[in-house]
Amino acid sequence: MTTATGLPRPTPLPDRSDAPPRERTDWMLALMRELFPMFRTIAGEGLRSTLRRLARDLPLQIREVASGTQVLDWTIPNEWSIRAAHVSDSTGRRVVDLADSNLHVVSYSRPVDETMSLAELQPHLHSLPEHPDWIPYRTSFFAENWGFCLSHRQRSALTEQRYRVVIDAELRPGSLSYGEAFLPGDSPEEILVFTHCCHPSLANDNLSGIAVAAAAARELSTRPRRLGYRFVFAPTTIGSIAWLATNEAILPRIRGGLVLANLGDAGALRYKRSRSPSLTDAAAARVLAHCGEAHELIDFIPWGYDERQFCSPGFDLPMGRLTRSPEGGYPQYHTSADDLSLIDPASLSRSVDVVLHILGAIERERRLVNLSPRGEPQLGKRGLYRAGQRAGQAADSHLALLWVLNQSDGSRGLLEIAQRAGLPFEAIDEAAAALEQAGLVREAPHDGESDSWRSRR
Fold first, then answer.
1. How far is CA 265 from CA 54, 238, 437, in A?
2. Domains in the chain, please, with CATH?
3. Quick one: which of 136, 151, 219, 335 is 20 to 30 A from 453 by CA?
4. CA distance 6 to 222
5. How much is the pLDDT for 208?
6. Does the pTM exceed 0.90?
């Protein structure tokens, strides 16, 4: 069935026991395997290589913002490139070597070539005593520093002697890169999807977000679209700030959106609400309530991923965040244990389904007007009445028809009706489509407010 707008209704969310789509899952896992070894950071060739790989499967435009450019209260940094990094003992044996792990060097370390004692070296070493075989991930993006990350077992084996420390790196003017795939719709309004893409060799954070966003964009690119969809792949914090600073003309058109991260592990789904009540919040709440998975709705706090930039008070965009295990919410977070073995293929693919259903609810949200509001119209003569129901009971599909008829006075949208009815959005949307086709309701005239949620912002 299609709605009066001509948009196809999505298939229901698959049950947890359903096998995920094989082609989609295989494509996502292959993409993650290809991207995992790339040395990404906030500006440099590793980031560009990642974006170029995505551009093979998406209509991705790669944008560049020059080093030194002022973006809001921040400045685009120099590019960082690294050729080699190691710590060698007095015999020349490399006790730490970047060639063994992308996480061994603190990202954006300044160049070093020095010999020093163990006591002088220790303040520049990072390890995890509670997980002695894991390597932590550390950065120094906006402070001139240097350091190495190693397993605590490696660190404990270091003895009192002189060590040669080499970081063959370069910081030079260049640009910050981000990728943007725009899928136009019939309306000038847009949905924004953002994921960060600046961490090297971390699978759940952040390759799963990249893979979920890319898979969602691929599937949406083949569908009719009422709204436009803008998928942005950018470095965390400075990337979203740069995008906001250079795309302010687009912001009034954003009807809803998601920040995606940490969507490949087997944890429960977690949606973090926007700063102000939003259409995205309503869509996520309805979808998660009927997704068949453990889930949690989290109130907004100004900490986390890039949602805190989009939801800063000067923008206050209707952007929520979807994760499974949140930042810092699983032991492997920002360590070498966040590798591809942590990814649960079924959870990864179901994350795409949930994203598509949240975006689809935003897409199909509309306010309707009942064209026969004085008493219930006779549904039977229009083929909409389901006979054979038990006395005093109404099937969800029939009840959805009655809810849409009763609540469609032009003041509230389908999501608000679904929330009040306690029914899945798809049931209300299907009922609305049937009533539209029967000529019993029509879409309310656009009065300058995209939806009843935005008027409350």
1. 22, 26, 42
2. 22-76+175-364 (3.40.630.10), 79-172 (3.50.30.90), 368-456 (1.10.10.10)
3. 219
4. 15
5. 98
6. yes
